[in-house]
Amino acid sequence: MAGGKAVGDSLKFDPSDDRAARLYELWGEIRDLQSAEDLLQWDQETQMPDGGVEGRAKVSATLAGLRHQRLTSPQLQDALAAGDELAAETEADGGVLGAQVAAARRQVERAVKVPEALVRQLAEAASNGLSAWRQAREAKDVSLFSDHLVRLVDLRRQEAAAISPGGNAYDAMLDAYEPGMTEAQLVPIFSHLQGALAELVQAVAESGVEVDESPVLGDYPVAAQEALGRELATAVGFDFDNGRLDLSTHPFCMGVHGGDVRMTWRHQQDDFRPAIFGILHETGHGLYEQGLPAAWHRTPLGEAVSLGIHESQSRLWENHVGRSRGFWRWAMPLLHRHLPGIDPAVDAERLWPLLHAVTPSLIRVEADEATYNLHVIVRFELERALFAGDLQVADLEGAWNDLYAASLGLRPADAAQGVLQDIHWSQGMFGYFPTYTLGTLTAAQLFAQANRDLGDQEAALARGELAPLLGWMRDRIHRHGCRFTAAELVQQATGRPLAADDLLAYLRSTVGEVYGLGA
Amino acid sequence: MAGGKAVGDSLKFDPSDDRAARLYELWGEIRDLQSAEDLLQWDQETQMPDGGVEGRAKVSATLAGLRHQRLTSPQLQDALAAGDELAAETEADGGVLGAQVAAARRQVERAVKVPEALVRQLAEAASNGLSAWRQAREAKDVSLFSDHLVRLVDLRRQEAAAISPGGNAYDAMLDAYEPGMTEAQLVPIFSHLQGALAELVQAVAESGVEVDESPVLGDYPVAAQEALGRELATAVGFDFDNGRLDLSTHPFCMGVHGGDVRMTWRHQQDDFRPAIFGILHETGHGLYEQGLPAAWHRTPLGEAVSLGIHESQSRLWENHVGRSRGFWRWAMPLLHRHLPGIDPAVDAERLWPLLHAVTPSLIRVEADEATYNLHVIVRFELERALFAGDLQVADLEGAWNDLYAASLGLRPADAAQGVLQDIHWSQGMFGYFPTYTLGTLTAAQLFAQANRDLGDQEAALARGELAPLLGWMRDRIHRHGCRFTAAELVQQATGRPLAADDLLAYLRSTVGEVYGLGA
């Protein structure tokens, strides 16, 4: 099951059914254009020379414009109508064709509301914004990026107005990443979580316990960290014959097309944890992409359902697996083999508290589990304000710094440690951050259910049995592509709607043990 | 002048002239699609995981199909007609707009004859062929690639029949790489050259002189070879802010789009010459791409004129510069600094004969200057026979081995050393090889003229004065894009048509000196 290649076959998709062939042909081209756009972006983040910015932005804009033309073409409308008719008279496929048509329609309906010129402007602005952000981040100077950000917010607000005239602009942004999710749904969830996390962080601070991190600090060669990361990713199930791992400024994972899933990483010389947990995180994303049914590649259903579900997979392998005692009971020999500088006396029991230490910090992607979602909520608040018109880009850095001071108790010394740390806004991705927290909640709920279904995973991981958990995810999540909504998947997999209690129980248990917080 | 950025401005192209704006807008999109295709191919050769083959082939086919649609669209025809009218009433631009329209028409006229379905089949077959070739080459087993080659030859013959019904199929292939060139023109040139080269190689064999290569053989770390190659490429004028250098199975250079020119290289552990002369070769290509006028990017004229002219630039820097005594008088300290294993007593005088040794061998890209064109002529003969229907793919390996035995006196031990050594046919590129020899002839003729115009380049290179020669090439070749034909450029730059005498004089002089062949 680990390969995931055969799973989709059971869903009775037959691309050779020539009555639906036109739909799949048209959709395949749309997906191909997306693949090319994705590869251009991966390349821009990992390979492209600085001088290529302007030319690359034009290529990206052209591809985005062509994809939009095809998403909004009368030919596709005809094919969808024919698909509807065919689906109504087809019973043998278990409703797959109907679901394919519906999935396509969701994208088409959003696309037809947005003028092509705006799509091109957005793509060009995102490509230029990415490069400007990278320079600004290096120079720690927001002013090198501000004009780009003003333009990106403006273009996205135009897009929101086109999609939902008079509606909530931020909801239109959220919907692109987490279909159906709204600001109104998020506010109470995030508010509850923020309160509970603040309490936990406060309790940690008052505990007086200090976690001694010196056992994991050292001088770790990049090549050794990479070798360890690759071995762990492979062990967990990532297939490097169908994927890659490269360095980048900002770690990410991209499913370019079937058989080509790319992860990136970055590292710190004196601490192996950012690299290793970063790679385990991206591996979770990569496993999901590699687990999407091969029979559905280049079809509307062959995509991840939402970024929240995507993030649930990365968080699961990074945190619930990667930070568990069991995993390190199994993986400890690998750690010592690749990083011989670590004190041989460090075993899973001594490592474990260092994986759950709570230390309010400035950088989201290196944050501990308890404070991580506080970082996300800062960005959620700022994005909401930007899109409501309550905050201007010129005031963003100050607002960022104030919120960090209030929420994390820290004020960034410079913009690279602050408002410029994340890549998302530079590419015009607003409404993306909340999916990280949705994913974190989902991961905890899925892992709790997997433990009930499969038995104690802590013990299984200690025996190096990683496949059953992946098989469970393949079955409950990966093989469905985007056939069901995120909410439906969570309900089907766990028997109840998404809630924060599994995450909070997990954090109170781990953090509570490390800091002696009592039951 | 070295940057080449401002050169095109003097040609009075004004992309903001809104009467011609539609033409430039449409053409820009066509060029953007080409850029995306180029990047996909670069990625496939340097980055893509093996599993991505099938998905990548579909993406490539879709992009090629879309580009073909746009090249053959009525909108473009209208824009070209408007461009013609406008050009007729515009005098201030020195004929640039008329030349733009003419350059576009050349591509359009070829495209409209080829059905889109065939274009897509060719793109998909080329993408799949590339991967099959790589596997076959690794396994030294032609059978893993034969079916792909049969299909590629068949598709190209269909293409030739569409372009020139009843005409010479091989001419239709040649025209794609060397516009206007025909088999009938090549046969006498190549025949003359083959005779003269065979005579020279024979004289070398009879001289009894053996060049002792041991002074340059050693154990050279890859990183040191790369560092030396990068320093030389930079010194010669390649701009790494607007380009890259990566490893690949088969070295190549690709101008993806403005500001993004990519070269690749490969190396041998025991001899630095393949890496260094390979990099100097690709640098010559890269300088041409970087020297195309920036004002013409994304316009019909903003392209290299032909592969023969392209190859003249690579051969010039690889051979006439890179294998000269003068260059190594200047570069010798770099060589010793990066490769300290070389005997310190090796100076330019002792190195020089080792750069002109003649040793018939099996691998084209590592061949010496005298035998190189014999390798090309073998391929030319085989391609002609394939396209005339006188040779079947099933008999290709045998025919290859027989021709090598007859021409070079060597028979390949396996297919990797023989018919599978080159990438070109795997991508359906037939008619490409002859441009290497055309380029070699052109390089010799251009270099001889540059010496007349600029004074003795041997002496200039010894002083590290590399810029004047590049400036001369920028002025005579690079800045014109594809405004003139290859034949016109050679005539304008050197005052006479292309001939073999400068190359033969150069080879007789260098090889003659090394082997004591007399005047």
Task: Describe the overall structure.
2 copies of one chain form a homodimer. The first copy, chain A, has 519 residues and is mainly α. Chain A has a domain at 7-177. Chain A has helices at 21-46, 53-71, 74-89, 96-112, 116-139, 143-163, 169-177, 183-207, 222-236, 273-291, 307-321, 325-338, 348-351, 369-388, 396-407, 434-454, 457-462, 467-476, 486-494, 501-515; strands spanning 243-247, 253-257, 260-265. A 3-stranded mixed beta sheet of chain A has the order 1-3-2. The longest helix of chain A is centred in the N-terminal third of the chain and has 26 residues, at 21-46. Chain A is globular and about 65 Å long. The interface between A and B is large, with 39 and 39 residues.
Helix and strand topology:
The structure is a homodimer of 519-residue chains.
Chain A: H1 21-46, H2 53-71, H3 74-89, H4 96-112, H5 116-139, H6 143-163, H7 169-177, H8 183-207, H9 222-236, E1 243-247, E2 253-257, E3 260-265, H10 273-291, H11 307-321, H12 325-338, H13 348-351, H14 369-388, H15 396-407, H16 434-454, H17 457-462, H18 467-476, H19 486-494, H20 501-515
Parallel strand pairs in A: 1-3
Antiparallel strand pairs in A: 2-3
Helix pairs in contact in A: 1-2, 1-3, 2-5, 3-4, 5-6, 6-7, 8-14, 8-20, 9-10, 9-12, 10-11, 11-16, 14-15, 14-16, 16-20
